[in-house]
Amino acid sequence: IPVIAAGGIGDGRGIAAAFCLGASGVQVGTRFVLAKECRVHQNYKDKIKKAGDTDTAVTGRKTGHTVRVLKNRLVTQFKELEKNNSSIEEMEALGRGRLYMAAVEGNVDYGSVMSGQIAGLLNKEQSCKEIINEMFEEAEKIMRNLIFITGGRNE
């Protein structure tokens, strides 16, 4: 059964690590939000580029719609509702339309800026081709070094 690794993969190191752990492939999310071809609002991209390694939070555990997002005023509001044991209906009402608000309208203060923890490592926009080439060139270099270090043994 092929295993596809996902989460926290944004460069060649993540790809190499996934392959070393036995994955057959990888799924990359947040890195491609910064692709030139991605039509998400520029404010959304800029917020990802400015993010640090502790700038994400998980919301929606109580509603069953768990997502990792960049911290902002919306996250503060969600955390307050969760802390106060607010109803699922209240939480769902707060979240309704918030991805559109961030991704299309560019409101990254009150919109849902979905992003993985890898955002802290991302700081530039590139074409999809450049992203793929860069990631796999780095992964290949790491894998070649591993083969050299182990003498090609895989036990």
List the helices and strands and how they pair.
Layout: E1 4-6, H1 12-20, E2 25-27, H2 30-33, H3 42-50, E3 56-59, E4 67-70, H4 73-83, H5 88-95, H6 98-103, H7 128-150
Parallel strand pairs: 1-2
Antiparallel strand pairs: 3-4
Helix pairs in contact: 1-7, 4-5
What does this 3D model show about the protein?
The chain is mainly α. It has helices at residues 12-20, 30-33, 42-50, 73-83, 88-95, 98-103, 128-150, and strands at 4-6, 25-27, 56-59, 67-70. The strands form 2 sheets. Strands 1-2 form a two-stranded parallel sheet. It has a two-stranded antiparallel ribbon with strand order 3-4. It has 2 domains: 1-36 and 125-155, no CATH class; 39-124, no CATH class. It is elongated.
Descriptive key words:
single chain, 155 residues, mainly alpha, 2 domains, two-stranded parallel ribbon, two-stranded antiparallel sheet, 7 helices, 45% helix, 9% strand
Short description:
With 155 residues, this protein is mostly helical.
Series of H and E elements = EHEHHEEHHHH
What would you call the structural class? mainly alpha
Terminus-to-terminus distance: 21 Å
* Total DSSP helices: 7
Percent in helix: 40-55%
Strand order of the largest sheet: 1-2
On the 0 to 100 scale, the average pLDDT is 94
